[in-house]
Every structure is written in structure tokens, then in C-alpha cells.
Amino acid sequence: xxxxxxxxxxEPLLERVNKPxxxxxxxxxxxxxxxxxxxxxxxxxxxxxxxALMYPDAYEVGVPNQGVMILYEVLNERDDALxxxxxxxxxxxxxxxxxxxLPQFTVDGHRSVRDFDxxxxxxxxxxxxxxxxxxxxLAGIALHSADRTDDDPIVVAGGHAAFNPEPIASFIDAxxxxxxxxAVLTVTxxxxxxxxxxxxxxxxxxxxxxxxxxxxxxxxxxxxxxLPDGRIKRVAPSSDAHGVPWRVAKHTVMDLDAxxxxxxxxxxxxxxxxxxxxxxxxxxxxRGCRFCQAGMITRPVRERSITGIGEMVERGLAATxxxxxxxxxxxxxxxxxxxxxxxxxxxxxxxTQTGLSLPSTRVDAFNIDLAxxxxxxGRRSGLTFAPEGGSExxxxxxxxxxxxEDLINTVAAAYGAGWxxxxxxxxxxLPTETDEDVxxxxxxxxxxxxxxxxxxxxxxxxxxxxxxxxxPKPHTPFQWASQLGVEExxxxxxxxxxxxxxxxxxxxSIGFRYHDGQPGIVEGLLSRGxxxxxxxxxxxxxDGGRFDGWSEHFSYDRWMRCAxxxxxxxxxxxxxxxxxxxxxxxxxPWDHLDSGLDKDWxxxxxxxxxxxxxxxxxxxxxxxxxxxxxxxxTEIEIGPTGKTLLPLTVLGSGRQELLEHQH
Length: 663
Description:
The chain is of the alpha/beta class and 663 residues long. The protein is 35% helix and 13% strand. It has a 5-stranded parallel sheet. Helix 11 links the parallel strand 12 (324-328) and strand 13 (355-357). The radius of gyration is 25 Å and the shape is globular. The two termini are 41 Å apart. It holds the Pfam family Radical_SAM. Residues 271-509 form the Radical SAM core domain. It comes from Terrabacter terrigena. This is TIGR03960 family B12-binding radical SAM protein.
């Protein structure tokens, strides 16, 4: 029977695998709804729209993911819909499932993923693509959308990587670009209506209905033609796909206070990467860092109000029992009322062991008053800052307007106020970067240690330098840039490591963490690839590729071998996708997906980067005409609201007052 629980068959397998608890489900605030919800005099079969939601990574990484958690709750609030979660199974469980003839299953109702109407995958990184193929294969769903029948779920991709879904175009049926809250409800309405009508026209008809909204991309309805040299000539709607738009627009949720999710955050059974409750305090960023895809594709800035944040924290703590609250955004200290938010929350939870954290803090938005409020009720851990570039010159190129003096003044204040540990995050391989730009990171780290010793009068000052490889991303000014090769990246990082270690005065006080260039090149292939890259992904998966975001499972040699074989009969190769600079007139694989950003504006910003010209934040200056607000019918929404938080506490009498306010 469709929707039947497989748990009795799964249970004997659990003692044979590592971390069996990740497959059990039953977390606090999880939901298992009846398979036939919302009868209304008809059979629930026609009226229930069922989603299987997947974060294509291990449970411990996927379960705290805010995007999946929000969609899970938004869908389950509907009487005519249900949503369950599934995660990538580890290779030991994959082997057990194949041996037992059991499918990819949800952790909520332990139902087969193939029984659902829709299979939604949220990709925050492209390195999860092979895990998607494992899940499809285990579920008994044909890998290629062209081979699926009316009995298969509609496979929908979302998340940041969905802004260029072309490398996985043959594996997915549709992609949703942008914010998912309203989008999944629209899709639910369309699929539900089609089911209630008796599924007229089958799979193709419902996909046409989705595509004609202009907000759902269905790759099968678009034809791609190529020039002899391998570049794309044109992407156009298929001649038989009537009513399908030339460009598909991203979704933008305005008024975050109207979407206070998750209201009941999930509490993982097994240890996860984030043991805290999180509240998104604003969405979007207009700082204009040229490398940052997240900042570009999530414009405009939309702040949650101080009272809206307070209500979400209060409700979430009561629902979970967590003792730490993460205030999430791309740059949380940029919220126009961040000082009032942190002071209000610290006052509210004084004496309750409830700690606050800002996972992302800009050097120029940090101050000690803010830091002291964050640590008033919690522990004083290390501080993390992201200058991104080692030299003043390269920071102008990437538009990270932070001077060396800004950084030194900030760390001086922190060390002087009692912090002992600072972590600095940089990138290697940025456009126009030289060895000297990267070696400046060592000099900066030494200055940080020396400053810390001077202001604190102590020798136990620590600084950790963490380096990530730069990967050019779609919908950014650097989408045309060449990527630094593996050998050049590794050579540059080796010089930096030697520069740090060679100075005996500071070397032992500076920690050095970095990723070699290999995973970055693969990510570059997947992030700027076109439909031809799908063959590479499938070849890697068939060769055993799994969990490519995990260093212990990632195989660079496998990716190189499979890329060479899969692209052998094309005029392009791995280097063509990664280390090649693009020209202004080239049709990019994602040009038909509209992030709101004007391509001419992005190109102008790319030229300004090469000229080392900085651009201000449009929150506080006149519009730079990037295109988002007028084109998307949106606008920047920021405070201050002038409101303050009521001094409620989870231990006090404020609970009833909050409940009355909500109703």
C-alpha cells in the first residue's frame, strides 16, 4: 500500500550500521500526518499533496538546515498537504538497503520516497549532486526525468545551487529559484488541483501548469543550442511548450514577520552540526561583496522586526529547550536594530543560561558593547571575522570595504575586553590575486597576535587563520572570472604556511587551516557548468561517488577521470568550465533564470573590480540600479521600528502575555 510504514523491515538493519539513531525519526516537534489528510467527503488520495523533503547530506548536517525546516512546517500546517523529511544515507546503510531490497525512506513515517507526489531537494552546495542520484536510485525513481512515469514523484530542486540547475537538468523535473515559503504553497495548489481533476494529461500536463506560472523552471521545456567552439548559442522554450516563459523569475518573500518560521524547531535525536535554536533576523544583503552569491541572489534586504524576533525566540525556546539562540543572516550585526535586539534578549533571559550568538559578524559592524551583550548569559567563546582578502588592494577588488586598521582596532578591543581567541577567514584564488596578496595574510595575523599581547598583557593570545578556495559563482560580478588552478592554489597556500611558521615569535600562536585546491575545482565545474556536465556527475556517481562534500569520501582522481571521459566527444573540457575567463557577449548557462540582477550591471561591477573601485551599500546610499527592486516589484525593508522587547522570560509570567499577543 502506498504510504505504508517500512519501519518493521528497516528495524533489523539498524544494528548493522553506524549511528542508527539518525534513521529512527521521532524528534521533538517532528510531524507524522495521516496519509489521507483532509477527506471532505472525497477520498484523501485526490486531496492530499504529499512532499518528501531532502537535504542531500548526512542527517547531522541536514536536520538543522533552516530552509528544509521552514518548508516542512509551512507545508504541514496545511490541511490538504503533508511533508516528511529524508536525508542521504551513509554508504553502510545504502549497502544494507540494496541487499534487503528496501527503498530510500523518510525519517518521519518511514515511507518510501517514491510514494510521494513531490520529491523536493534543497541544495546549498553543488557537492550534494551525487547524493541526489543515490536517493533517486534507492527510491526506485528513474535517474533521468525523461524516463519517469506518472507514478514517479515530481523531482524539484531548490536552494542556492538551484540558481544554476543546468548541470542537473536531466535529473530534475523542476527547479524553484529564490525563497521557498510561498513557492511551495503555489506548487502544492497546482499539484493538488491536478490530482483532484483526475491527473489530466499526466506528468507533462502538471509540469506545463507549473512552468506557465513563470516561477517554476522545467528544464525539459527549454532547448539549448551550442556554437562550434562549445559556447551556448541560445536557450529557448521548446516549440511544443506553449505558454512557457523565456525567463523564469526568482521568488521573494516580503514582510518576514508574516512568515515566523520555524515556530516549532526540530530538536535532533543525534548530535548535529548546530546544537542551537536559530532565528533568521533578516534576509538579503546589499554590501555588494563581489564573490558572494548569497548576497547577490537574496536581494533586497528584508529585516524582521525586533518584536517579531522576540516572539520567535520566546516561542522557539519554549518549544525546544535549547540554551543557545543563533541570530542568523548573511551579516547579522548589520540589522538596523541589532544593539536593541541583543540587549533586549540578554535582559529578557538574564539568569536563564540562555546564550546568544551571531554566526556571521563583519569587522566594521562589530563593537564590544554588542559582544558583551552576546556573552552576558553564555560562555565567552572565540570571535570569528572574515576580512576575506589579505591585502588592502584585493579587498578593494572584492568590495570588502574593511581596512587593516579596522581589523586591528576591532581585535584590540576584543582582546582588551578579555577574549583570547580570534578566528580570521580569508579566500585564496580571488581575481587579480598575486602571491603577495596572500602573503599579506601572514603579516596581518602577526599584527593581530602582537596587538592582542600588547592590549591584554598576556602571551596566551591565539589567532586561527582559515583559508577557503575562491569559486566563481553564477549571478555575481565574478561569474566571468577565471578560477585559479589546483597546482597554483596549493603552491600559494604552501608559501603562506611557510611565512606563518617561519616567524618563531608568532608561529606557535597562529593556527592555520586550509582546503587544498581539489574540491574547489570540482565545485567550480558544477557551479558554472551547463547541461553537458550532467554526464560527468552521473559517471562519478556510477563509479562510486558519494558525499563529495566530505574530505574522507571525496575523490579528485575520480572526478578528473570521469570528466575527461564524459566530455571527450565535446569541444569543451574541465579547464573550459573552470580556469577560462568568459567574455561579455557569452551566453551563460543560467542567463534564462532571472535573479533580478541586471547582467549589464554585473558586468560593470566586474570592470570596477578590475579597476579596484569600491561600491557603497545601497541601504544607506542612493540606488546603484542593480535591477532587483524595480524588476522584482520589491524594495528594501529596514528599520528602525523604535519598538522594544517586553521583558518576558521563559521562566516567568510573560508566556501568557506572549500567547495573548499572538492571538
